[in-house]
Structure formats: structure tokens, C-alpha cells
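Q: I have 117 residues here and want to know how they pack in 3D. Can you give me a structure?
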Amino acid sequence: IKEEAPEVVPDEPDFIIFSEVMPSFKGGDKALFAYLSKSIRYPKIAKDNGIEGRVILSFIVDKDGTIRDIEVLRSPNQSLSEEALRVVRQMPLWSPGLQRGKPVNVKFTLPIMFKLN
């Protein structure tokens, strides 16, 4: 009798990058942009120094819609990074990503534009 090696099952990743249904802010992109424009307070130091630009954040949208593991990928200025982080930390729950009809943790990238008038 030949003994078979046990089947190796790779660990499930903590998150995926793309899901069949991507996570979304409740109400869609329009509601997300409305939330951002209502919530962002332009940092005084950045305003006084004429600093503007795009802060790019990544985060995990958990199976329950919670935002976690927020990281700044790119930013023109520390004060803009801190404000973008503050606003994303306070976001309401998202609709989670779905894979084969089941909620999954999905890594999401969000650019936030800071523009002076």
C-alpha cells in the first residue's frame, strides 16, 4: 500500500486585491466624494504655504465593511497625509467586497486631492 502525501493547502491570504464585487462606500462614489469634501479640513500650515496635491492611501475593507491598516502610499506633505488619515479613520462602514457571493477582505487604494482655490 502506497501512502499518499497529505495535501498542502496554502494559507488564505488576509486580503485580496480584486474581488468580483469591489468594496464600495455606501451610496457609491458620489457619496464618497461628498463625504470627503464635507469632512476634509485643509491644514492651515499647508494652506499658508500654498501646498496642494494628491495623497494616495491604501487600506483594507474588512468583510464587515470596517476600514483597517490604513497606509499613506504617496503624499506631497505630512500635514496633508495626517488630514487624509484622519478623515479615512472616521469613515462610516463600507459595503464589503464579494467573492463567489461571500464577503472578503479587500485592499483598496484611494486618492484624495487637496486643491487650494
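Q: Anything worth noting?
A: The beta strands are 24-25, 53-61, 67-74, 94-95, 97-99, 102-104, 106-114. The helical segments are 28-39, 44-48, 78-89.
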